[in-house]
Structures are given as structure tokens and as C-alpha cells.
Design brief:
- The structure is a homodimer of 246-residue chains.
- In chain A, strands 1-8-3-6 form a four-stranded antiparallel beta sheet. A four-stranded antiparallel beta sheet of chain A has the order 2-7-4-5. A four-stranded antiparallel beta sheet of chain A has the order 9-10-12-11.
- The first copy, chain A, is α+β, with helices and mostly antiparallel strands and 246 residues long.
- In chain A, helix 4 crosses helix 5.
- Chain A has two domains: 109 residues, Jelly Rolls (Sandwich); 84 residues, Arc Repressor Mutant, subunit A (Orthogonal Bundle).
- The radius of gyration of chain A is 19 Å and the shape is globular.
- Chains A and B meet through strand 4, strand 5 and helix 5 of A and strand 4, strand 5 and helix 5 of B.
- The structure holds a DNA duplex (30 and 30 nucleotides).
- Chains A, B: GO terms for molecular function: DNA binding; DNA-binding transcription factor activity.
DNA sequence: TTTCGGCTTTGACACAGATCAACCAGAGGC
DNA sequence: GCCTCTGGTTGATCTGTGTCAAAGCCGAAA
């Protein structure tokens, strides 16, 4: 892949993911990246990596959605991050994976063997810098989510999740006249529950409640339309614009 | 301050905080750090920075404890990080603070004006690398805390918090014969509640319950003794050793 | 077409933790 | 000595969410 192609794809499958950075990239750096790069696909439901396993690559999601979860021995699980296209996976400098990574839809990842990637990182400061930026973003997202988990009601939690997905989902469409936003919910009620620290029954009930209140409307079980985003954000109890997903 | 002094203090007040890194430091880098460094003290209860404010420095805690909190308009607050000595504060590359930082005890911080620090960061790759490491640690801690907030019971939450403090608190003392660990709790019940997503009454009740069960014992309200750490960890429902605080 | 299994909804009820309220203990200040 | 203030404990009650159970929906397989 050439420099031009990296630009073309807006670096969705480059671990540095950001056009501004790549514009600065030297082409020999890109060639170095190419040399250690490979693609992998995972089917919906398939595990990318288990917590504790040796993780010999890093990479980023090209398409599909994956989840980052932690589980207790008794089976209680908490999602700690949602990986959308262009999100980075892996921790340079760490031997093992800290979480389970599971594909919830079919997923394609762009991977780099870890050792060579780390070598590259040591040699090219602005890749390291970009990675720091991304990690800080994830940290912000994680901390925002701590507020959601610790202090919001079930209804606010649902509204928060829908806001975040609406904001990030690339496939969202906005009706220019009404301003209505709609998108496909690519998570099951159970996955939402795991993200929000709720049970799937409560998720279902609160979605029904938001529907009844006219904050959202549904076509089928998974296609959501938000007639007025401000209303949804208000339901989320949002102090701010919110962050992105981890 | 000289290289020797940085080593002497184990870099507690160096933003890079780790002896192994500093051993690699070139002395001119340290001089560059010295040139932009200054100290600041805060009294217990005083705010270091408010969310949204311009933040023109980064730094690390030398002594005392500070908290990172987020607040909703209606006053609900959630602590998103606990800053113990040697923890880093601030986000290179970001203009404003994302959280409130408040000193809970008297605090001394070692600060660096942000711009010069960022310049230094750009020039010295291994400082950047160390910062990435630290940010990844914080991310792990935040995600571990998401499991606590989302899925643990009040009792498990308290046990988790006590485990973490016992593990990290430098002033902890271990009785070599019995293996009992004891430490001073430097947070009010309310601060604990804000960290755990509970009310202060529930915190109080659960601490009493753990005391009655013999998992911990108290002298006064704040000095905690843990006769058997394994027991406490078991109460925390801990799948793993756990992380550190953010 | 029927059947099946995964996902979702809905209801009845239980319970952990919130809320409201009273009281207690220790540290200053006077 | 007493007063007051902050932080902590404990009790009674309420409620949001979990739990258990039943039934509905819909796409895929047979």
C-alpha cells in the first residue's frame, strides 16, 4: 500500500488512523508499516483474543464491531470498551491481553506483529505521539463511562449509549429537513446490558419507555430513529457533549 | 536538581516517575526538565483545577492525595481517579482540563509548564514512551474500575477499594509474623462513596459489616487493619490481582 | 410449510441500596 | 467547662432494578 492509498482510506486501517498524522508520514515509514502488516477476519461471535492470552500483535478494526469485556469467575461480565472501525487494539509494551476481545459482527482487522511494531514505534516519534493521543482519548472515554456506570439511572444509561452510538456510527443518516438521525443498533440487548451494567430485561424496558415517550422510534428491533437529538441528550442527563467509545 | 537527586527520590517528583527510565536519562534532559519545573502546594479541600478550565501545566503528585471527579448539573458526582504520590496529572496536547482535580489532603505537586514540557516530549522519545506506559496503566485502572462500578455489590465494592488502597498506599505496614496489613484511610466516607458509585450511608454500613465479619478491624474511624489480605481479596470478588488507581 | 432457536418483550415479585431522619463522637474554639 | 461543627453511625422506609417466568417475534433450517 502506498502513501496515497493510506490517505485515500483516511488511514482507517493504519494504526495511526488520522489523516493529519499520515500527511506528515514519510513514505519509508509507511513502507516499514506495510512490511509488517497483515489482515485477519473474524466471524460474528468469534473471539479475537482472551484475557490473559499472549498477544503477539496490535492492530485496528477496519470494519465491523468488536467488544472489550471483563468477566468475573461467577460469570458477571462488564464491557469496558466498544471497538468501532478505526479503533486501535492492543498495548505496545504489554505481553498479555487484559480483556476478552470478541467480534459482535463480522470483523476485519489490520494487524501488525507486535515486536516489529514496537521497534517502529521507538524509531518514529510521531507515531508514538499519535498513539499517546489515542490512548488519552480512550482514557477520557473510559472515565466518562465511569460516570455513566456509577451515577446514572437505567434510563439515562440507555440514552447515553444511544447518544454515543448515534454520534459515532458512520452509517448514521440525518434527515436534513427534520434533523432526525437514524442508525442500526448493532448490539443485542444483552451486549447493551453488559456495557451499561444492567440486565437485559431492564434494557428492554427502558428502550420501550423511551419509545413510548417519543424520544426514539424503532423499526424492527434494531433500527433506531431519533427525531430530536437534543431531547435524547437531555434524557442522558449529559453535562457535556460526551466522549467517544473506547 | 541533579541526576543523582532524581535517582535518590526514585523520581517521585519527576514526571517520568520510574527509576529504570531515569537511569537511562541523559543529564541534559534532566537539566531541561529542571529548567521548566516548579513546585506548588495545595491545602486539603482546595481545588487544583476545575473541569473546563485552561490547564497550562502538567505535573505529578509529590505528597498527599488528590481526586479526579466529574459532576452532573444536578450535583451527582463520580470520582474517576485517585491521585497518589507519583501519579501524573494533565494531558499533553489538550487545552482544557477534563475533570475537577481536588486536593483531599494537603498536597505538593511538581509542575511543568505545559508548552515547554510538550516541546521536551517531542524531542525525547523515551519520555514520550514512558508517558504512554503510564497512560496505558491508567487506562487499565479505569477499565478495572468499570467492572467494579457496573457489576459488583456494595460489599464487593468496598472490599475492592480497600484492597487497592492497601496495595498502593506507601504508608502501609505489614506485620511480618501475622501477615496483617494496616493503613490509614485518607478518604472520607463520602469520598469513598463518590469513588464507588454509592451513598455514604451504604459505605458506612458495609464497612461495619466487614468489620463484624472479621475481614477488617478499625482503630478510630480511619485506621484499618486487614488480618488476612486473601480474605479481603476474596470479598472483593477479584478475578485477578487488580490494577492500580488512576 | 412447519419447526426451531435466538432474541426480545412483558409481568409479578423480591431485594439491595437509596432516602430521610435521628443521633453519636471527637476536635476545636471560647 | 460548654458549644458547635464536621464526619460517622444506625434505623425505618421506599423504590429502582434484579430475578424468575412466560410468551411473542422472526429468520433459518428442514
Amino acid at each position: 500500500m502506498t502513501l496515497a492509498e493510506y490517505k485515500l482510506t483516511d488511514c482507517a486501517d493504519c494504526p495511526i488512523r488520522h489523516r493529519a498524522v499520515c500527511a506528515r508520514c514519510e513514505s519509508d515509514e509507511l513502507e516499514a508499516l506495510d512490511a509488517i502488516k497483515y489482515y485477519r477476519s473474524y466471524e460474528a461471535g468469534q473471539a479475537v483474543i482472551w484475557s490473559g492470552d499472549q498477544m503477539n500483535f496490535v492492530g485496528s478494526v477496519v470494519s465491523g464491531i468488536a467488544t472489550l469485556t471483563q468477566t468475573m469467575e461467577d460469570g458477571r461480565t462488564q464491557m469496558v470498551g466498544l471497538l468501532l472501525p478505526s479503533d486501535f487494539v492492543g498495548r505496545p509494551g504489554r505481553a498479555g491481553a487484559a480483556y476478552n476481545v470478541v467480534a459482535t459482527t463480522d470483523v476485519v482487522m489490520c494487524c501488525f506483529r507486535k515486536k516489529p511494531f514496537e521497534d517502529l514505534l521507538a524509531k518514529t516519534p510521531h507515531i508514538a505521539h499519535r498513539l499517546l493521543e489515542m490512548t488519552l482519548d480512550e482514557l477520557d472515554a473510559a472515565r466518562e463511562w465511569m460516570l455513566v456506570l456509577g451515577r446514572k439511572t437505567a434510563r439515562e444509561k440507555i440514552a447515553s449509549l444511544l447518544s454515543i452510538i448515534a454520534r459515532r456510527d458512520a452509517s448514521l443518516s440525518t434527515d436534513p429537513s427534520s434533523g432526525a438521525v437514524s442508525f442500526d443498533l448493532k448490539l443485542t440487548r444483552e451486549a447493551m446490558a453488559d456495557y451499561l451494567g444492567l440486565t437485559l430485561e431492564t434494557v428492554s424496558r427502558q428502550i420501550s419507555a423511551l419509545k413510548k415517550a417519543g424520544v426514539i422510534s424503532l423499526e424492527g428491533k434494531r433500527h433506531v430513529t431519533v427525531p430530536d437529538m437534543r431531547r435524547l441528550i437531555e434524557e442522558a442527563g449529559d453535562d457535556s457533549d460526551g466522549g467517544l467509545v473506547g
